[in-house]
UniProtKB/TrEMBL annotation:
A GO MF label: ABC-type transporter activity
Protein name: ABC-2 type transporter
Keywords annotated in UniProt: Cell membrane, Membrane, Transmembrane, Transmembrane helix
UniProt-listed InterPro entries: ABC-2_transporter_component (IPR051449), ABC2_TM (IPR013525)
Species annotation: Methanobacterium formicicum (strain DSM 3637 / PP1)
Length: 384
């Protein structure tokens, strides 16, 4: 079967554009920077999840490095026992005043009993683990106060223990062979990673491409080769397709690579094929917009400024719905492509009709493409 000549011409233009992109050192540097962004983002969320979760801190052994001070007379008391149960390291001092001198240095908190029997806690609020230590001390103090109340009511220690620990249960895991290997078993980690980091990382190549692609037309103008492009024996549609294909493919390849990197970091992404479809149409819109802006301005500086403003607005539209919990607007938010990406990424079981939410993105991408072609055709008619 003979391949139409127009296909060969588009291929030739696409190869030329691809060569220009690969020779752009800034673009290659941007690709490398994205790797560090991915690793850094996942790492920061993991650290934040551990720092805010007392259970994870216990599992990692961090809490044993957190020191609180008590006066010597509290050693062996029920209060110290409850504090030890929270896996915090206790340091005893001759007096409370002596312990206070170490607050903010060695100690995160100082705990004491007032003459009336009330627990007095002084905390170093500047410590990064202050929220976790505060929670642990509060739990220990609650248990201590409950014990005193029950004992004052005439109960013995055995009865107090039964009341404070009424239920003991054993967790039995099933279907462990189907368990998804996740970097951290933390609700905070899952919410932030899938609710923001994953769509941000997968869209990052297209954000970067939008800036790079502005050179596609305005760069031709500055190099005085734009008229040569206008005189090529290709229709306006073919020229735009030839310019879009290389950067779109490069961006899709990067996003697929980032899915693999996330999987290596134990952040599994489900429905990768459908995600690539969503990314294709979103990328088409971003890159088409970049080319359209490139044709409407006369310098690279103007093009970069314009595309930056567009990306700021797009970021607001795409990511704000991920943080807004509203039943009123949920029906509208479902059509935001980043919301669709989150739904696809988090679960292997999806309904096929969910892809109908992609329809507005498809329409917008098509309209941007048509607008870009018309703008190029108009430019061609004026200059030739």
């Amino acid at each position: 079967m003979k391949i139409p000549t127009s296909i060969w011409k588009i291929k030739a233009l696409a190869i030329k554009e691809a060569r220009d992109i690969l020779q752009n050192r800034i673009y290659l540097l941007v690709v490398l920077v994205q790797v560090f962004i991915i690793i850094g983002a996942v790492g920061l969320v993991a650290v934040a999840a551990v720092a805010s979760d007392p259970t994870l801190l216990d599992q990692t052994g961090v809490t044993s490095a957190l020191n609180i001070g008590l006066p010597q007379n509290l050693e062996g008391s029920s209060l110290s026992k409850y504090l030890e149960d929270e896996k915090i390291t206790l340091n005893y001092y001759n007096t409370t005043d002596e312990a206070k001198t170490e607050l903010g240095k060695k100690l995160v908190a100082v705990v004491d009993l007032s003459p009336s029997g009330e627990v007095v806690v002084q905390m170093d609020n500047s410590n990064v683990f202050y929220p976790v230590v505060s929670t642990k001390i509060r739990d220990a103090v609650d248990n201590f106060n409950t014990e005193n109340t029950l004992k004052n009511a005439g109960l013995n220690q055995s009865q107090v223990n039964i009341i404070q620990n009424p239920v003991k249960f054993q967790e039995i895991k099933i279907n462990q062979d189907k368990e998804v290997p996740l970097a951290l078993d933390s609700p905070y980690f899952v919410e932030v990673i899938y609710g923001f980091i994953v769509p941000f990382i997968l869209l990052l190549p297209f954000f970067m491409a939008s800036n790079i692609v502005t050179d596609s037309v305005v760069g031709e103008k500055e190099r005085k080769t734009f008229e040569v492009l206008l005189m090529t024996p290709l229709s306006s549609y073919m020229v735009i397709i030839g310019k879009i294909i290389p950067i779109l493919l490069f961006s899709l390849i990067q996003s697929i690579a980032w899915i693999a990197v996330l999987d290596l970091l134990r952040v599994p992404i489900f429905n990768a094929a459908l995600l690539v479809v969503v990314l294709f149409f979103m990328g088409l819109a971003f890159i088409g917009l970049g080319i359209l802006i490139s044709m409407l301005v006369d310098s690279t500086k103007e093009a970069n400024s314009a595309i930056t403003l567009v990306l700021v607005f797009a970021t607001f539209i795409l990511f704000i719905p991920l943080f807004v919990k509203s039943e009123i607007f949920q029906g509208v938010f479902n059509f935001i492509p980043t919301v669709l990406m989150v739904k696809l990424a988090v679960s292997p079981n999806i309904q096929p009709e969910i892809m109908l939410y992609l329809l507005p993105t498809l329409i917008i991408s098509f309209l941007i493409f048509v607008g870009t072609v018309r703008s190029f055709r108009h430019e061609r008619a004026i200059r030739l």
